[in-house]
Specification:
The protein is mostly helical. It contains ten helices and no strands. α1 (2-20) packs across α3, α7 crosses α8 (168-204) and α8 packs parallel to α9.
């Protein structure tokens, strides 16, 4: 329980910091040449980077990017994936076979490799990175929703609703989606952690957000060459990334443990 509280506090601080950052006037792009590579004890905060910019301000700016990417990617992936999975599992037949083949094609490629390829084709930039990650992320939601729908569609209350003339869309929205929501919420927590790590990876490769905007991945890339003389350039964004992803995974584990009992009870009715 203590670990869950700490994880929730880290996530709350991360989200709050990202939301209030526009009003803090941190000036993450201001160059201060006399303080190039100054350490935390010399310049205060988290030190300065290779251009004399505030590492603390850039870490906060990177938090904005990671929060935006995580929310948008998970939101788009959940809407697309749940829609595809519900429709495929509910109707079955050729629709289910077509959706299954599409899911298998995407699963045949390593997720990160597919995102890198799409981002390289679309070009660097935050919008293209989000599009590439969303094209990768919907598959998990679709597979989850399809499997759950196949196991639920023959339940008595579903058959009763269909026998009473309730429309297919209403059945999926009122009777199937609430039962799929619990495991989908757990999937969303893990999906957000994966999206944040993937965005950092794309930015590290130069395919994500472009300079002078800050991203944790691009900060780590730029700081690697100064690792021996200014390790804070890598440690600050690296520790921030690790803390946020670990906290999200801990919260996801807690949600899985708590929601699984309720989900199992509701399915058994």
């Amino acid at each position: 329980m203590k670990g869950f509280g700490l994880a929730g506090g880290v996530l709350g601080a991360w989200a709050l910091l990202a939301l209030v950052a526009p009003w803090l006037a941190l000036q993450s792009d201001v160059v201060d040449l006399p303080r190039i590579l100054a350490g935390p004890f010399e310049a205060g905060g988290l030190g300065r980077d290779q251009l004399g910019r505030s590492v603390l301000a850039r870490v906060v700016s990177g938090a904005q990017v990671s929060l935006l990417v995580g929310l948008v990617v998970v939101g788009v992936s959940a809407v697309v994936g749940l829609s595809v999975g519900l429709v495929a599992g509910y109707y079955g037949g050729w629709i289910d076979r077509l959706a299954s083949r599409a899911i298998e094609v995407f699963l045949a490629f390593p997720g990160m490799l597919l995102a890198i390829g799409l981002a390289a084709v679309l070009g660097p930039g935050l919008e293209n990175a989000i599009l590439a990650l969303s094209a990768m992320g919907w598959v998990g939601f679709a597979r989850l929703a399809r499997g759950q729908t196949l196991s639920l569609v023959e339940r008595e209350h579903i058959q009763a609703a269909r026998a009473l003339g309730v429309g297919d869309f209403a059945v999926m929205r009122r009777h199937l989606l609430p039962l799929v929501a619990a495991p989908a919420l757990v999937e969303a927590s893990y999906g957000m952690a994966g999206a944040i790590v993937a965005e950092a990876g794309l930015s590290f490769l130069g395919l994500g957000i472009q300079p002078p905007a800050a991203s944790w991945g691009s900060m780590i890339r730029d700081g690697v060459r100064y690792m021996l003389v200014a390790p804070h350039l890598v440690l600050a964004p690296g520790l921030a990334l690790c803390a946020v992803v670990l906290a999200i995974n801990l919260v996801g584990d807690r949600l899985r443990d708590r929601l699984y009992v309720r989900f199992t009870a509701r399915r058994s009715r």
